[in-house]
Write a structure and sequence with these properties.
The chain has eight helices and five strands; from the N terminus they run αααββααβααββα. It is α+β, with helices and mostly antiparallel strands. It has two domains: 70 residues, Winged helix-like DNA-binding domain superfamily/Winged helix DNA-binding domain (Arc Repressor Mutant, subunit A), CATH 1.10.10; 76 residues, Winged helix-like DNA-binding domain superfamily/Winged helix DNA-binding domain (Arc Repressor Mutant, subunit A, Orthogonal Bundle). α1 packs across α3 and α5 packs across α7. The mean pLDDT is 87.
């Protein structure tokens, strides 16, 4: 199978598969080496990018996946407005951000940062498999510790947590406080 046929096959497999596909699994299906698959995927990614297509192939924690460009989200949300209810609430996004940057973290720690109860939000995020219980913290009551999952990475199109944007925690000056 030449490179053109390899790329066509990989594109078709990724198009039909809703979940990320590991390079090793693609290699097995196409009877190629993992390196050949990676080379073909890199070429496909470049072709999609140079052609300014609405689709892209991106790498996630679990392999390769075909998806839409993030900048198309507003258009897609309008086109599929009945599916908007599946989007995350502001509260869910706040909790996810706290967990992503501070994991593993307890419910009490999350609530102290947000200033509001977060138990129901945590339950919903666990149900959606965006977070999971990572164990229990040593100490009184042994509270549950939460961390993000591979589904979290997939949902936000991240390869790993190192791709999270850097936090900029500049605090505003309070009245009467002046720099000297």
């Amino acid at each position: 199978m030449d490179l053109t046929e390899q790329k066509k096959a990989i594109e078709a497999i990724l198009f039909l598969n809703e979940e990320p596909m590991q390079a090793s699994r693609l290699a097995g299906a196409l009877e190629l080496s993992a390196e050949e698959v990676k080379k073909a995927v890199l070429e496909l990614q470049a072709e999609f990018k140079s052609a300014s297509r609405g689709l892209q192939i991106f790498e996630t924690a679990e392999g390769y996946q075909m998806g839409t460009h993030p900048e198309l989200a507003p258009v897609l949300e309008r086109a599929f407005s009945e599916d908007i209810s599946s989007n995350l609430t502001t509260a869910a996004l706040e909790v996810l951000a706290i967990i992503a940057y501070k994991q593993p973290v307890t419910r009490i720690e999350i609530e102290s940062i947000r200033g509001v109860r977060s138990e129901q939000v945590l339950i919903n995020l666990v149900k959606r498999k965006l977070i999971k219980v990572a164990g229990r913290k040593e100490g009184p009551g042994r509270p549950l510790l939460y961390c993000t999952t591979a589904d979290f990475l997939k949902y936000f199109g991240l390869k790993d947590l190192d791709e999270l944007p850097e936090l900029n925690l500049e605090l505003p000056e309070t009245e009467g406080e002046q720099e000297h």
